[in-house]
Amino acid sequence: MATPVVFIDGDQGTTGLQIHQRLQGRTDLQLLTLPAEHRKSPQHRAEAINACDIAMLCLPDDAAREAVASIRNPAVRVIDASSAHRTHPEWVYGFAQMSPQQAERIASAKRVSNPGCYPTGAIGLLKPLIDAGLLPQDYPASLHAVSGYSGTGRAGVELYEGPDAAGAPAYQAYGLGLAHKHVPEIQQYSGLGQRPMFMPAYGAFRQGIVLTIPVQLRLLAPGVTGERLHACLAEHYAQLQHVEVLSMQQAKALTYLDPQVMNGTDDLRLMVFENGEQVLLAAVFDNLGKGAAGAAVQNLDLMMGGE
Among the options 52, 58, 117, 232, which is catalytic? Predict the structure, then answer.
């Protein structure tokens, strides 16, 4: 069997660079990238994408759509790290742990859309609980998340690591128009029946995410407790790789959440905190790991026949 050719289109951005670094040196694939003088050439990019087995698109949304439109070879498979196709009905959503069947769907897919960083944590917490009927579909979900500045791309890295870094803000909330592009993705794949309230922010650290979702137990069915919510998450992820659910005892021992604690891993850590009346669902993960490049490589491995 021939060694598959994997083309990274856009290997100079934060996600593309990470993917390139992860795949360099692997002997089970042949890595294809464009030299600097050809990166903006539509002809060279189209030739490369049609000559590969799997294309990994690390591009802005419009450029990702153009790249897909240039595919003429029906054998080419695609992993798109942009948000261009995340809610598209003909694309498979690349969150392998989302459901028991999702890894198999990714493995056989021609088109896979890599999840957004924030949606990975939000869907990871919400979907099992909504599927089990513990959280109603019409629950008024409110999400708060703080990401490292690498989530803003090269411009954010330059702001915090460039010559004017001393003037970079320590913290900034954004998305104040309440129309963040991740909201439709979160709603569609979590199973929520209405738009969640989503408040994202960036902090003065390079990478890592803390995402939290408050839950009022009085709005849930009688008998639904923090322990039941935790048990549901623990059962859902018990046999799945790359997701860790802390025990209630481990969570209770924590006095703060460090957004950087999972940096350098491709795993998602989930936690449940409760006081008998209220519950806080929490996710911590690396926005460049499970939130981007790590998830893309996990999907690539599935599509190449691995786990």
Answer: 117
Of the candidates 50, 49, 62, 61, the one whose C-alpha atom is nearest the C-alpha of residue 9 is 49
The CA dihedral of 95, 100, 101, 104, to the nearest 10 degrees, is 70
Q: Environment class of residue 218 by beta-carbon count within 10 Å: exposed (0-12), middle (13-18) or buried (19+)?
A: exposed
Domain ranges of the chain: 5-115+292-303, 117-287
Q: Which residues contact 213 (CB under 8 A, 6 or more apart)?
A: 122, 125, 126, 141, 142, 143, 144, 280, 281, 282
* Residue 232 falls in the annotated catalytic set: no
Helix (H) / strand (E) element for 172: namely: strand 171-173
| pLDDT tens by residue, 147-181 | 999 998 888 899 999 998 999 999 999 999 999 99
Express each pLDDT in 275-304 by its tens digit.
999 999 999 999 999 999 999 999 999 999
Level-2 CATH architecture, domain 117-287: 2-Layer Sandwich (3.30)
* CA–CA distance, 126 with 151 (Å, rounded to integer): 22
Residues 5-115+292-303: name the CATH superfamily.
NAD(P)-binding Rossmann-like Domain (3.40.50.720)
Pick from 190, 55, 175, 214: nearest CA to 120:
190
